[in-house]
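Input.
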Amino acid sequence: MVIGRRQNGVAGVEFAIVLIPLLVMLTGITEFGRAMYYYNTIAKAARDAARLMSTQTPSDPSYPNLINQATCTAVYGNPTCAGAPLVPGLAPAMVSICDRASCPGTHANVATGTGVINLVTFTVGGSNNPYIFQSLAPLTPGLFGVASFDFGPISVTMRQIL
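Output.
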């Protein structure tokens, strides 16, 4: 009977030892999932904004207003800039647009196998004003010990009407 009493509490100690790494891994997995959700949200918003920009050409009189609407669509998810940004920290200053008027050397009269097209590129982030993901658990090494990181430029290019 004395031998059985020496084993009391061993399972509790083993659980306490294993609990800390498990919580660190769970927090890291959660933060990685949150980062991927933010990236996907920004990518979809950039796609929607590029699709909106591809509906008119720079020669249309309402084109400057369309640029503002596309920027609002990428940041706020709607063309009126109403509400909170789609992801925390996203701002209109992080958006850049390259179209036939602003980048004529690369986006105007691009030859294809079936004719000539114009392009519009919509970029969120980049080297000038990147989107920085902030971890909610910066001390957790689940994201390789990184408290914040830059997604890099999230860019979408579409064909613009002629």
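The first strand starts at residue 95 and ends at 98.
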